[in-house]
Amino acid sequence: MKTKYLLLLLLTFPLNIWAQLSPEELVEGLQTKMATVNGFEATALITVDIDFIDISPREVKIKYTAPDQFEFDAKGIALLPKNGMKMEYIEMLNGANTTISAGEEEIRGIGTQKLKVIPESIESEIVLAQLWMNPETFQILKMQTFTRESGSYIIDFYFDDATSIFSSKLIVSFDIENLTAPAQMIAEFMGNAKVSEEGLP
Questions:
Q1: How far is CA 38 from CA 67, 98, 102, in A?
Q2: Residue 46, burial from CB neighbour count under 10 angstroms (0-12, 13-18, 19+)
Q3: Number of other residues whose CB lies within 10 A of the CB of residue 25
C-alpha cells in the first residue's frame, strides 16, 4: 500500500508544479493581494539616466490610497513619462478588460506567465499592456505598456521578497523621442539639470 501511495505522489507532483493558472486567475490573485493594503506613504529616491542631461538624484514622496490612487510630491523634478509613474496599470487591471495568455518567459531567473491586457474602455490612455507575472507570488516583474499619446514604456519591478505587495525598486524605460517636450524644457523641469549640446535628440 505504501508503494502505491508513493508512486501516486511521484506521478502527480510534477503535474501540480507545472499547472498553469488562467489569465483571469492571475489577475484575481493580484487583485486579492492588493486588496489587503488600504494605503501607505513612502519616500523614494529617483535617479534619471539620460545621456544628454546631467540630473542629480531627487527625493519624491509617494502616497497610495486604495484601490488605485497614487499621489506624487516631487519638487523640482518632472516625472516622465507621467503614465508610468501614475501606475495606471492598477486602474486598468481593476476595470473591464480582455486578458490573453501569451506564453511563458524567464525574468531575472524567475519563471513568469505573460499576459496581454486590452482595456475595454475607449477612454483609457493605455491601449495595450503586456505583463510578466510570477504565478506563485502574484507579483508583476515586468510590464510593457502602449499608450495613445505617450508612446510605449517598460517598467521592471523589483521586490524584497515573495510576500511583498509593492516593489521596493522599479525602473521605467522609455524612448525620449516619444516625448513632445524639448530637451531644454525637460532640464528646466528638473531644476538644476544641465543639457549637453552633444547627443540632443
A1: 7, 26, 31
A2: middle
A3: 13
Q: Contact, 157 vs 167, CB < 8 A? A: yes
Long-range contacts of 34-41 (CB under 8 A, 24+ apart): 34/66, 34/67, 34/90, 34/165, 35/66, 35/67, 36/165, 37/64, 37/66, 37/165, 37/166, 38/65, 38/66, 39/63, 39/64, 39/65, 39/66, 40/64, 40/166
Residues 194 and 32: their CA atoms lie apart, in Å, by 44
How many C-beta neighbours within 10 Å does residue 168 have?
Answer: 12
DSSP 177: G
- Sign of the C-alpha dihedral computed for residues 108, 82, 86 and 56 taken in this order: positive
What is the rounded CA–CA span in Å between residue 40 and residue 164? 13
Task: Using pLDDT thresholds of 50, 70 and 90, give the confidence band for residue 184.
Answer: very low
This prediction's pTM: 0.73
